[in-house]
Design brief:
2 copies of one chain form a homodimer.
Chain A: H1 18-31, H2 44-51, H3 55-67, E1 71-74, E2 78-81, H4 84-88, E3 123-124, H5 137-150, H6 165-177, E4 187-191, H7 192-204, E5 210-215, H8 219-227, E6 231-238, E7 242-243, H9 245-254, E8 259-262, H10 276-288, E9 293-296, E10 321-326, E11 337-341, H11 346-357, H12 362-373, H13 376-402, E12 408-409, E13 417-421, H14 428-437, E14 440-441, E15 443-444, E16 457-461, H15 468-486
Parallel strand pairs in A: 3-14, 5-6, 5-8, 8-9, 9-10
Antiparallel strand pairs in A: 1-2, 4-11, 6-7, 10-11, 12-13, 13-16, 15-16
Helix pairs in contact in A: 1-3, 2-3, 5-12, 6-12, 7-8, 7-11, 13-15, 14-15
């Protein structure tokens, strides 16, 4: 990242305002590549000092740059270079949803999304993984040392459901920040968000039942529903605002739905976020239809905007909404510390946890509790959100540069995932295969819905800080997509 | 434990052999309570030195004591005081099994088996918990320190299925010791044995399917089957030799069974162990009926006899038998490190693990791998087996002392659980309630089977070293059972 350059001070000149010259100066840094899309622009204070202008002049200059689409302000963080190319990208279109419950097969290629072993040097854009560099490794090490000293034997003992009390208190405190008052005893600690969702599903539905989900949605949610013998009913979504409450209402009118499993905040893969009004409406419908709604909030703390988005649970008292989340995308995927607010299913959820996996590992719970108590989480989150936002913007810019016309890309409001719609005729599975040969792993859209809805989509993860290897990988993907766009699709051959 | 006493050397006397006097000396230590049932008797070498007799004399003296039922030899460990009272206890009888698949309800009292919180001072005999004092806390702390130093960031990263390779290698090595050759890639690391069983069940059966189980069996197995929408078919067992292969064959002939879930080694609650011939027969039947058999081997390393009992898997190549186990009863319950050998269901098991809980916590896997690599496990196991054996014998002795006539108790061959059949008319649930009032938690037999089969049984855990509080607890239980045996049972009132 570059925050300063060696040019001389810009003098005030005839016919133009001083702030225009300040703006010219910053624009030149962007145009000559000294500042790249996603980079942080010198702060108002820094530019003021550097160019010896007043605060008002600097502020006016940055307003001009913002209006021109050169930079953007990010709350509590400063100004960043926008990518004009990325800004011109269109959002992906809706896929076709089948309109009836489906039994889904676990696609066999799921296994090959992850690297086979340590010798596998492929660039992995296929998994929603935070880069280890972004995680608070040192703070966790300190917490681990404290815990090991304070409770030498504790970590060997079972932490039976609902889990370690100090951790549940910290989670209840965090949830309060998202607009819900819950008691620590309402919190069940689970082995990550995945187990929380598994338990929630089994609390509210039985094999054979129909579960309403967003389309597209995280493939593990679809796999989980299928493996529990349930059926998924996929509902259409908006790429920015997620599930449409009207579509939800129609689905409830026309189908016998037993529960819903939604990702209202920064849906994986879309990055969409449901507005409060839509959330309120979904909860009203849940109440009217006596429908349990499970929300997966694993990305909720990773908002790019000012405000932490609300939980569905904020509009409910726990009699309809169950909330699942974890620290896997924010602190430590390997800790497997998630949680479930099961509301009125609390007792059932605790006993189900006991039956299915007995307890969550004790040591990671103790370390997480210590880490949260020490207040390091909020500071860490601010840095992390800013990093993810920059990485997402940088990746969008690279896609805009390297992918052919006709490519559409999501504009996520949080999280670190991009949803890419490929140009006409280009099949995701062909890109996936050619990319694998070229040493790049991507997640083909087919995984995120039933039938052929997302045959032409990819999900790319922006979990890692920008680096030359990523530029190379995106350029390679761009060439692959470009080449495939030149050729007739499978179906056309010999037709 | 007392291993020496201050009496004078016993002289050789007329009409009796010298070894008789040596035997008298030891017997007097037992009779006056210096040595208590379950205590270790001075070694041959020690008694030889102390009484200045030859090795042959000492050996002959101990043989006499063994023949007289005063002491027993334990392989690689020495001689221990037997309880003549406990030796006279009869084994529990078989409960009635319904003979048809049942859907079981999770009993609501399951939650109250565990202490409510830290302020709960009840003596907990209700849970199969190893006492923390018996666990290798220091060795694990050292392993933790090494791991934290060697891989500061590793513990924050996902350890995707099948799990950390160094740990899988160690597990494969351990399994080889139980008679099976498996490749590390055949091992799936899970969150404890419970998750391994959950995954195994879902690999081989679907909701609605019938699963054959032993009766009695661990209540969590019954709960798990019920929560997965399957039905349990309970098969009769022998209190010493476990599942009868003939009963198994009849069940397969007369029912449409989809899979079996068995605990062949030290069944919970019986402590029974299937002989190799019976195991071989069960595997032959599994092959003939193309029936997947899941074995839960969580107690397999805790044998009181010389030899580690075989796995079912030792008689199969992985095409019919799946093996689940963990380190929860031997090293660290709180680590939640278990494993599954899924045989030909390997790929399905890995993807199911991914769908249901994504990964097992990384840090406990790394620490366990380090602990195993350092060779501390075998040494620890020897000590632990000897401690559990002594604790079980001590508890049997206390039951023989304090419980009224008509009480029957299991004679486990490994593990640390006792299965107690109460005298006529005494209902386990009444004992459970009265004991709770008296500050003692027990597990009522009702949890271990359907219907009324085990209404008159209790399971007691001997996970903790003997101490006065346990003596007091067993005495209190004895009084409760005694009092209840004086009164007509519920059903008789007013009849």
């Amino acid at each position: 990242m570059h925050t300063a350059a060696d040019s001389t001070i810009v003098p005030a000149a005839s016919g133009r305002f001083l702030h225009d010259h300040v703006a010219d100066f910053v624009r030149s840094l962007i145009e000559d590549g000294t500042l790249k899309p996603g980079d942080r622009v010198p702060s108002l204070r820094a530019i003021r000092r550097r160019l010896e202008v007043s605060m008002a002049t600097a502020t006016r200059a940055y307003e001009t740059l913002e209006e021109g689409g050169w930079i953007e302000a990010r709350p509590q963080s400063g100004f960043y270079v926008r990518s004009p190319r990325a800004a011109a990208l269109e959002a992906p279109q809706r896929g076709h949803t089948p309109g009836r419950p489906e039994r889904l097969d676990v696609p066999s290629l799921l296994g090959s999304l992850a690297p086979a072993d340590e010798s596998d040097n492929a660039v992995t854009l296929s998994l929603a993984l935070p880069d280890p560099e972004l995680l608070p490794t040192r703070a966790l090490q300190r917490a681990l040392t404290r815990v090991a000293r304070a409770h030498p034997g504790a970590s060997t003992e079972y932490a039976f459901p609902p889990g370690i009390e100090t951790l549940r208190r910290q989670i209840a405190y965090r949830v309060a920040g998202a607009g819900c008052r819950v008691h620590p005893d309402d919190v069940l600690v689970t082995s990550g968000c995945a187990e929380a969702l598994t338990i929630a599903l089994q609390c509210v539905a039985r094999p054979g039942d129909v579960i309403a989900v967003e389309s597209p949605t995280f493939f593990n949610i679809l796999t989980m529903i299928e493996r529990l013998g349930m059926r998924a009913l996929e509902l259409p979504t908006d790429p920015l605002e997620g599930l449409d409450p009207q579509a939800f209402e129609r689905a409830l009118e026309h189908n016998s739905v037993s529960a819903a499993l939604l990702v209202p905040n920064f849906n994986n893969p879309l990055g969409s976020c449901m507005p409060d009004a839509a959330k309120r409406r979904v909860v009203e419908l849940a109440q009217r239809y006596a429908l349990p709604v499970i929300e997966d909030d694993i990305y909720g703390d990773l908002h790019f905007g000012d405000r932490r988005p609300s939980l569905l649970r904020a509009f409910d008292d726990g009699s309809h909404v169950l909330t699942a989340s974890s620290f896997s995308k924010t602190v430590a995927p390997g800790y497997r510390v998630g949680w479930l607010l099961a509301g009125r299913w609390r007792e059932g959820a605790n006993s189900l946890k006991h039956a299915l996996s007995m307890a969550t590992a004790t040591l990671p719970q103790l370390v997480m509790a210590d880490f949260l108590e020490n207040g390091a989480y909020e500071r860490h989150l601010r840095r992390l959100r800013s990093a993810y936002h920059a990485q997402v913007e940088r990746m969008r810019h690279a896609i805009a540069q390297h992918f052919p016309a006709g490519t559409r890309v999501s504009e996520p409001r949080g999280g670190f995932l991009l949803w890419v719609q490929l140009p006409d005729r280009v099949q995701a599975i062909d890109v996936y295969r050619a990319a694998l040969d070229a040493g790049v792993r991507v997640a083909p859209g087919n995984l995120f819905g039933s039938g052929a809805a997302y045959d032409q989509y990819l999900r790319l993860s922006c979990g890692a800080p920008w680096q030359p290897a990523l530029e190379t990988a995106i350029a390679a993907l761009g060439r692959i997509v470009h080449d495939l766009a030149q050729w007739p699709a499978h179906g056309d051959i010999g037709a």
